[in-house]
Amino acid sequence: MAELKTARLTRTNAGPGRLLIAVYLLFAIAATSRAGLQIATKFDQAPLAYLLSALAAAVYIVAAVGLARAGHAGRRVALACCTVELVGVVGVGAFSLARPDLFPDETVWSGFGSGYGYIPLVLPILGLAWLWKTR
Amino acid sequence: MTATGSPVDGLLATVAIVLSLLVAAWALVAALRHRAPDRVQLVGLGVLELALLGLTVLAALALGGGERPGEPGAFFGYLVTLVCLPPLAAVLARMEPTRWGSAIVCAVCLVTPVVVVRLQQTWEVLGG
């Protein structure tokens, strides 16, 4: 059991990693549909917020693929995505508090992801921890 | 328009929400006990999917009857996402026959009620 566990833990796409990928998938779907809808119907109202939503959506998709691919390239992609996410959610979160006028509409990352139960803030940290653990 | 009520806000929606939370609780217990997704979880996901398809039929009937959601784009987005959630959980659970498969079922079944509520909100908007 123990050796089976260590063998599995070197892969990013098994065990807890699969749960992480599932949550990334859910956020990819949520962010993609939200950004798609916002850009298609009311882009002029808050272009910055909607472009950031689209960026977040792309990052979630690429992160999910990176984690699922598991290999060295996948790990590197996932590492980059999780870092961008963490910087994004903290940066946009701080910015949306400091300059609310720039964000007349919500993004996935505004208020540190408060509209999504702060999961956008926790997710990249879990992702980085998981990559560290399976290194 | 006489208030016939929202098609996605009724007994069936409540059943779907409660059922989803029950499956989530069952899956959480399984995950905590190091159990892979069991038959109860998969059957639960199947019944949940039936309830969600029932909601879709109710929404389709209401649309056929001339009613319209407050935010059509968001409403249909949520509806499509919603009916995809249980199958997604089932597929991922089959791929991961460990406690983490149960954890995936739990996570998806916690998200499903949120999407049902958002679905109801995007139908209501116009009525305020």
From TrEMBL, chain A:
The chain crosses the membrane at residues 51-70, 77-95, 115-132. It comes from the Bacteria. Keywords: Membrane, Transmembrane, Transmembrane helix. This is Integral membrane protein. The keyword Transmembrane applies. It comes from Micromonospora craterilacus.
From TrEMBL, chain B:
Keywords: Membrane, Transmembrane, Transmembrane helix. The chain crosses the membrane at residues 12-30, 42-63, 75-93, 100-119. It comes from the Bacteria. This is Uncharacterized protein. It comes from Micromonospora craterilacus. The lineage of its organism: Bacteria, Bacillati, Actinomycetota, Actinomycetes, Micromonosporales.
